[in-house]
Amino acid sequence: MKDKAPKDVLPQFDWQGHRGARGILPENTIPAFIKALEFPIKTLELDVVVSKDQKVIVSHEPWMSHHICSKPDGTPVLETDTLLTYEMDYASIQTYDAGMRGNERFPAQQKMKVAKPSLKEMVQAIEQHCQQNNRALPYYNIELKSRPDWYEKIVPVPEKFAALVIQEIKDLGIHARTNLQCFDLDVLKAIHQQDPSMSTALLVEKAATFEVALQELKFTPPFFSPYFLTLNKAIVDSVHERGMKVIPWTANETTQMLELIEMGVDGIITDYPNRIEAVLDSLRMQE
Ligand code: G3P
Ligand code: CA
Hints:
Elements: H1 6-9, E1 14-17, H2 30-36, E2 43-50, E3 56-58, H3 90-93, H4 119-132, E4 139-144, H5 158-172, E5 178-182, H6 185-194, E6 199-204, H7 210-217, E7 223-226, H8 233-241, E8 245-246, H9 254-263, E9 267-270, H10 276-286
Helix pairs in contact: 5-6, 9-10
The structure holds SN-glycerol-3-phosphate (G3P) and calcium ion.
SN-glycerol-3-phosphate is lined by residues 18, 45, 47, 60, 143, 181, 203, 225, 249-250, 269.
């Protein structure tokens, strides 16, 4: 923090709980999002797909993952199973578990029986929890999971996917606190065309692809979100020159978070919102 003191920077800093708080509770579930609210996060990051009956479902994969999901009879989903959310009604999705098996990559994650929620259920649960607990309402950073080779088979085409999510956000009354993010530029274009007032983030795997992606997009979203290990200060500066904010994903070690803050990022997406306080302590000690 050479240019600015932490006390000047951090009140606006956009800490985001990745998939809620994946490091400690099952990803993209209501308990994980509620847990994340215990920490100084401003935003909940989540992923959405679509069910057969056209409901927006909170899930990283548009299928039941063989890594983390269990079938209604309690047995694990197998790699050979094909359980596409786009071919399952919401009621059927509710019969699958997404939390009992834990996650090998996150050994501290608490196991619990929990289903994938709809976006509506999730937002209503969060807003109610905040009101009951006098907690500031969070922002929502919602990633539409889409790839061109998935269109119509695994997820809707971009225009339909964008329309479904935008309508849900309007119905839920969270438009002013929502950002939509996507790796698929056609989805971002559809969102911007249907609702130019909708906040969006350009998601990329490699930060250096920033200029090319922006040219193809033909509009400038307010946020740029690259994989954090591909980012450097020169890129942060050039994104800022475009008037955009930089929110990298997904940094989990406190040393990595401190390096990103030093580079001048505007927020950090982390699986461990419970580590934010340690980062803030470090910054206070540098003052
Ligand atoms: O916010 C962006 C980040 O979540 C993208 O990666 O695979 O965790 O959805 P992924
Ligand atoms: Ca995501």
